[in-house]
Amino acid sequence: MPALGGDSQERYLLAYVAATGVGAVVGGSINAVLWPPLYQRRPYGAARRLNREAAALLKNVAGGLREHCDLSDLPDWQRHADRLNAHLAQATSAIADGAESRRYNLRRISRPAPSDHAPLLAAMGQIGVHIHGIVRALGAPTAVSEMQPERRNL
């Protein structure tokens, strides 16, 4: 206590408030000189990767169905559809990180704000549900065809 203001509580409290204020000013000036990173490319890249993966899966499924309903790649399609959920989570995280990096960041003044990715993520979440449904529906006939012949007609 003697190092911060002496014997009285008032002087100690005043010195403590002054030290806190000096710390805040030093921290703010360091943030003004050494700007924290601004993540703008990562959300855009994550959204593009999600779109490419969904398009590639739908293209593979369409190609397999065009070739006389070739379902030999069905396990790969199911794994690919499951990976879409991981890509959606990564895109959501990258977009949230990008938005967080813009808060109180002085670099945001010199760079325009990226477009809002929330509608895209909502749409891709719904599309992912439908893609899972398509792949699951394609897997259902193979389960029926693998049944014993007498049970198929039930």
Describe the structure.
- The mean pLDDT is 80.
- It contains 5 helices and no strands.
- It starts with 8 loop residues before the first helix and ends with a helix.
- The radius of gyration is 28 Å and the shape is elongated.
- 12% of the residues are buried.
- Helix 2 packs antiparallel against helix 3 and helix 2 runs parallel beside helix 4.
- It has 154 residues and is an all-alpha fold.
Low confidence ranges? none
The profile of the biggest β sheet is: none
Q: Helicity level, as a percent range? A: over 70%
Oligomer: single chain
Estimated share of beta-strand residues: under 5%
Q: What is the CA-based Rg, rounded? A: 28 Å
- The sequence of SSEs as H and E is HHHHH
Q: Helix tally?
A: 5
**Helical/strand content category:** mainly alpha
Span between termini: 87 Å
Count the strands?
Answer: 0
Taken from the alpha-carbon principal axes, the silhouette is elongated
Please write out the topology.
Layout: H1 9-33, H2 41-66, H3 74-102, H4 118-145, H5 149-152
Helix pairs in contact: 2-3, 2-4, 3-4
Short description:
Helices cover about 75% and strands about 0% of the residues. The longest helix has 29 residues, at about 75-100.
Main features:
154 residues; 5 helices; 73% helix; 0% strand
